[in-house]
Specification:
Elements: H1 3-11, H2 14-17, E1 21-26, E2 32-37, H3 52-57, H4 62-71, E3 75-86, E4 94-99, H5 102-112, E5 121-128, E6 133-145
Antiparallel strand pairs: 1-2, 2-4, 3-6, 4-5, 5-6
Protein backbone atom coordinates (compact mmCIF):
# COMPACT_ATOMS: atom_id res chain seq x y z
CA UNK A 1 0.00 0.00 0.00
CA UNK A 2 1.18 3.49 -0.79
CA UNK A 3 2.33 5.40 2.32
CA UNK A 4 0.12 8.39 1.50
CA UNK A 5 -2.99 6.24 1.27
CA UNK A 6 -1.99 4.37 4.43
CA UNK A 7 -1.78 7.64 6.36
CA UNK A 8 -5.17 8.76 5.08
CA UNK A 9 -6.78 5.43 5.91
CA UNK A 10 -5.38 5.11 9.43
CA UNK A 11 -6.28 8.71 10.22
CA UNK A 12 -9.93 7.94 9.45
CA UNK A 13 -9.94 4.50 11.06
CA UNK A 14 -12.62 4.89 13.77
CA UNK A 15 -10.62 3.66 16.80
CA UNK A 16 -7.90 6.23 16.11
CA UNK A 17 -10.04 9.00 14.65
CA UNK A 18 -12.51 9.10 17.54
CA UNK A 19 -9.70 8.90 20.10
CA UNK A 20 -8.08 12.00 18.55
CA UNK A 21 -4.98 10.08 17.40
CA UNK A 22 -3.38 11.13 14.13
CA UNK A 23 -0.42 9.86 12.11
CA UNK A 24 1.36 13.03 11.07
CA UNK A 25 4.11 11.31 9.10
CA UNK A 26 4.66 7.89 7.54
CA UNK A 27 7.89 7.29 5.65
CA UNK A 28 7.72 5.80 2.16
CA UNK A 29 9.37 2.58 3.39
CA UNK A 30 7.08 2.28 6.44
CA UNK A 31 10.08 2.39 8.78
CA UNK A 32 9.29 5.66 10.55
CA UNK A 33 5.92 6.85 11.76
CA UNK A 34 5.09 9.91 13.87
CA UNK A 35 1.83 10.02 15.78
CA UNK A 36 0.23 12.90 17.69
CA UNK A 37 -2.56 13.14 20.23
CA UNK A 38 -3.79 16.69 20.61
CA UNK A 39 -5.22 17.78 23.93
CA UNK A 40 -8.93 18.23 23.35
CA UNK A 41 -12.01 18.06 25.55
CA UNK A 42 -12.59 14.45 24.49
CA UNK A 43 -8.97 13.32 25.11
CA UNK A 44 -8.76 14.59 28.71
CA UNK A 45 -9.46 12.74 31.90
CA UNK A 46 -11.32 14.12 34.94
CA UNK A 47 -8.29 16.13 36.13
CA UNK A 48 -7.67 17.70 32.72
CA UNK A 49 -4.63 15.73 31.58
CA UNK A 50 -4.36 13.36 28.63
CA UNK A 51 -6.49 10.24 29.12
CA UNK A 52 -4.26 7.24 29.81
CA UNK A 53 -6.23 4.97 27.52
CA UNK A 54 -5.64 7.34 24.61
CA UNK A 55 -1.91 7.45 25.41
CA UNK A 56 -1.86 3.66 25.30
CA UNK A 57 -4.00 3.48 22.15
CA UNK A 58 -1.74 5.85 20.24
CA UNK A 59 0.96 3.13 20.25
CA UNK A 60 -1.27 0.24 19.21
CA UNK A 61 -1.19 -0.53 15.49
CA UNK A 62 2.08 0.96 14.32
CA UNK A 63 4.76 -1.68 14.86
CA UNK A 64 2.42 -4.40 13.66
CA UNK A 65 1.75 -2.41 10.49
CA UNK A 66 5.43 -1.57 9.99
CA UNK A 67 6.58 -5.17 10.42
CA UNK A 68 3.82 -6.55 8.20
CA UNK A 69 4.79 -4.17 5.42
CA UNK A 70 8.57 -4.71 5.76
CA UNK A 71 8.57 -8.48 6.30
CA UNK A 72 5.96 -9.17 3.66
CA UNK A 73 3.02 -11.52 3.41
CA UNK A 74 5.05 -14.58 4.37
CA UNK A 75 4.87 -13.74 8.09
CA UNK A 76 2.22 -13.65 10.77
CA UNK A 77 2.59 -10.45 12.80
CA UNK A 78 0.38 -9.89 15.82
CA UNK A 79 0.47 -7.90 19.01
CA UNK A 80 1.14 -10.23 21.93
CA UNK A 81 1.31 -7.98 24.96
CA UNK A 82 1.87 -4.42 26.09
CA UNK A 83 2.11 -2.31 29.20
CA UNK A 84 2.43 1.37 29.93
CA UNK A 85 4.42 3.25 32.54
CA UNK A 86 2.96 6.67 33.27
CA UNK A 87 5.79 9.09 34.06
CA UNK A 88 4.22 12.56 34.16
CA UNK A 89 0.84 14.16 33.41
CA UNK A 90 0.26 15.05 29.77
CA UNK A 91 -0.88 18.66 29.86
CA UNK A 92 -0.22 19.45 26.16
CA UNK A 93 -0.40 17.57 22.89
CA UNK A 94 1.77 14.46 22.98
CA UNK A 95 3.62 12.59 20.28
CA UNK A 96 5.37 9.30 19.70
CA UNK A 97 7.85 8.24 17.03
CA UNK A 98 8.14 4.66 15.81
CA UNK A 99 11.35 3.56 14.09
CA UNK A 100 12.23 0.25 12.49
CA UNK A 101 15.83 -0.32 11.43
CA UNK A 102 17.62 -2.91 9.29
CA UNK A 103 19.17 -4.61 12.32
CA UNK A 104 15.75 -5.26 13.87
CA UNK A 105 14.38 -6.70 10.63
CA UNK A 106 17.44 -8.93 10.20
CA UNK A 107 17.20 -10.12 13.82
CA UNK A 108 13.53 -11.03 13.30
CA UNK A 109 14.28 -12.89 10.07
CA UNK A 110 17.16 -14.77 11.72
CA UNK A 111 15.06 -15.80 14.73
CA UNK A 112 12.17 -17.00 12.55
CA UNK A 113 14.23 -18.77 9.86
CA UNK A 114 13.81 -22.15 11.57
CA UNK A 115 10.02 -21.77 11.63
CA UNK A 116 9.74 -20.82 15.29
CA UNK A 117 8.01 -17.77 16.68
CA UNK A 118 9.92 -14.71 17.78
CA UNK A 119 8.73 -12.09 20.25
CA UNK A 120 10.47 -8.77 19.56
CA UNK A 121 10.07 -6.02 22.14
CA UNK A 122 9.71 -2.32 21.43
CA UNK A 123 9.76 0.63 23.82
CA UNK A 124 7.92 3.76 22.74
CA UNK A 125 8.38 7.11 24.47
CA UNK A 126 5.42 9.47 24.50
CA UNK A 127 6.58 13.05 24.97
CA UNK A 128 4.78 16.37 25.38
CA UNK A 129 5.25 19.57 23.39
CA UNK A 130 8.23 20.49 25.60
CA UNK A 131 9.97 17.16 24.99
CA UNK A 132 9.25 15.87 28.51
CA UNK A 133 8.57 12.17 28.90
CA UNK A 134 4.89 11.54 29.70
CA UNK A 135 4.74 7.76 29.33
CA UNK A 136 6.72 4.79 28.07
CA UNK A 137 4.91 1.92 26.41
CA UNK A 138 6.46 -1.53 26.07
CA UNK A 139 5.01 -3.66 23.29
CA UNK A 140 5.78 -7.29 22.48
CA UNK A 141 4.85 -8.63 19.08
CA UNK A 142 4.49 -12.18 17.84
CA UNK A 143 6.25 -12.91 14.54
CA UNK A 144 6.37 -16.26 12.76
CA UNK A 145 6.84 -17.39 9.19
CA UNK A 146 3.65 -18.70 7.64
CA UNK A 147 3.49 -22.50 7.18
CA UNK A 148 4.42 -22.45 3.49
CA UNK A 149 7.67 -20.60 4.36
CA UNK A 150 8.74 -22.82 7.26
CA UNK A 151 11.40 -25.48 6.79
CA UNK A 152 10.10 -29.04 6.47
CA UNK A 153 10.72 -31.32 9.36
Amino acid sequence: MNWKWARRLVNFWPPLFFAGIKATSISEDFRRIEVVLKRRFHTRNMVGTQFGGSLFAMTDPWYMMMLTYNLGRDYFVWDKSAHIDFIAPGRTAVRAVFNLDDATLERIRAHTADGKKYLPNFAIDIVDDNGHLVARVHRTLYVRAKPHKRPLG
